[in-house]
Amino acid sequence: MIELAVAQERAEPLGIDYRVCDARALPDLGAFDVICAAYLLHYARDTDELERMCESIARQLRPGGRLVALNENPRQPVERYGGYLHYGFSKSISGPRREGAPIAYAMVSGRELFRFEVYHFEAPSYERALHRAGFIDLQWHELVLDPAGIAEMGAGYWREYLDNPPVVGLSARRAD
Ligand SMILES: C[S@@+](CC[C@H](N)C(=O)[O-])C[C@H]1O[C@@H](n2cnc3c(N)ncnc32)[C@H](O)[C@@H]1O
After folding, report:
1. CA 77 to CA 14: how far, in whole Å?
2. Best mutation site among 20, 26, 39, 167 for ligand 1, i.e. most ligand atoms within 8 A of its Cβ?
3. Looking at the domain assignment, is residue 105 inside a domain?
4. Is residue 107 in contact with ligand 1, taking CB distance under 6 Å?
5. Exposed, middle or buried by CB within 10 Å (0-12, 13-18, 19+), for 67?
6. Structural domain total, the chain
7. 82-104 pLDDT per residue, tens
8. For the domain that residue 139 is a member of, what is the CATH number?
9. Which domain holds residue 20?
């Protein structure tokens, strides 16, 4: 993914510097206004790793800077994990949904199926980890449909997904 981004930057430079780092222990990268963590925090395997990621991210923000994340939806009932096959993927869990329990995804890519696991944390665990890292103004955000998605597929196509969102937005601000 990053190799493709670097090739794109070479072809059409936007001044973006790509680095690959472990989010649990980021080096000093700068003091950013906004950090975007799309599908990242739920790769922590336990609450200790989740806290390390949040602390590591907080260190890269200027005071008042924002974290904007897309993440597993911790409030989605397990009974509703099915139901995405016509969107080209499945989401499932085997065993009880404890903190750190793996959630299995399988996605269709062309003629292939690829699988990966993310980890479940309750909403208060995310909130605690972010607060401990010095974040305030935590907000969970419902998904909103991009007009381009409506134009391409029609609003009806997305209704079932939006009525049962597998992922959710999360934002917070680093305390001044
Ligand atoms: C589902 S992909 C999302 C990629 C990209 N953010 C996007 O939205 O297209 C999740 C990414 O998180 C990365 N990841 C998982 N654990 C990580 C960690 N501890 N530090 C940094 N990246 C990690 C994986 O390597 C993978 O590239």
Report:
1. 42
2. 39
3. no
4. no
5. buried
6. 1
7. 989 999 999 999 999 999 999 99
8. 3.40.50.150
9. 2-77+126-174
